[in-house]
């Protein structure tokens, strides 16, 4: 789920997949469908039917007709005195394929964050029968910096083929210090008409834009209605790749609707979060104790940051101000637990007491902060500290990630926008450092001895760095020696090798090691398939693909982090055997990704050399073709086998 401040409405889908809300605990509260006296007067059946038929018969780029169409999206936002607001939302949805009780089919639902004044759902069956549904889902949010602790949903879970669904909701709340309202765009669902109107005071301007993908500039949308107290937009087409329709309210003479710049947000959060630092003698004493033996400022930063990372448990806690305000740092130190802002402010408090300039820094795990107007679209808090060697003079640290060592960042936030809160003079958005494929490596060096019955023994040295090592190192630390062996055997079985690990040695589990090394000896009773006088095998049981990395239907794939994998396997086969067939060599490359595989004949042995590199974690549209070619070529080449004959 995409995240944001109180003004943000969650993006939602009406698709042929089941409802899934990441990081959210669902509690279904009630479900009843009863006969309704009629339909709302705003529903124009004749117009809706004509639009429905048009949309249902327009195939997508793959030739598939839609299962769900949005006939009408209508929003009306009433803003009074620059603070009170009411949002009324109306929607008409038509489904080609319904969902019966207990079946997995289309679900239609509406999400909203605010105080609910009213919500209604009408269902019009294909035979014209009308029923009214009130089915509410209340959800505890999984993120920490939302303004509301509960997400509400109005959901239609059972409806017939050809049904038309009418949603009407009304929400009321007080505006925060934001000047933006975000309206969701349906993903992969055709829309007949998009209508949005804002009622506001005289002297207030309302401007709007479509937000697209991160690489594209927002598209400004001129209003179709522009009066003293009403601004409205009515559109029959939504731009390709549009994700959010955003409306901004502003005046000439005062900051009536709050935020005018990213710097405003930074100063606001420093003021709010800074209150947690007041009167913290225990933190001051702990800082002095911890840095007593530190010779340099870098040593002090590392010591204090790692102390919080390793000694404070990470939990998600909702506090006042909708989860933005951290606990007092003395309290976090005493409790030994906290959420991202609690842990980050404790690090800031310790660093400040040790003479290191530091601040809380806001970023976004789920999505990048890429709106045309400054807004509180953040869901995570980390630490920024002065570092002359860092980008633009800053170093960053995330104390919540137990497996990520000091000097690195969790892969989920690398390259994301970050706002350092409180530095004077204030600065705008920065970009977090990003690792490269050369930082996140895995290499395999193996000697395999094949037996005449198709079995084998092998000795392997596996080395990992960066994100290829961090999570694995943390996992292996928690396992006993026996469980580590079981883990390795399970990993090999996932590569179609039923192997027994005879010994396993680990080097580099200690926290200050940059490299994790695994040395293991293994044996398998059936490595190659025996077919008469032939042995047939896929020699690379260490790094070869067992599946493609990309979903063919994913138009915007993302990878966890850039990486490089290098493999060298020497296969020694029994005397009297020869190589009948080797796979063709494969090599292709681009700036986004590359792949190489070679098979080399030797005296009584074969050497397989393989290299795979990914640089584009979030490929641009112009990189997708190269990424898909790389993915397919690697998968196909890795499936090729060696044939030995006697």
TrEMBL record:
Domain Transglutaminase-like: start-end pairs: 286-385
Leader peptide range in chain numbering: none
InterPro entries in alphabetical order: Papain-like_cys_pep_sf, Transglutaminase-like
SUPFAM superfamilies, alphabetized: Cysteine proteinases (SSF54001)
Protein name (record): Transglutaminase domain-containing protein
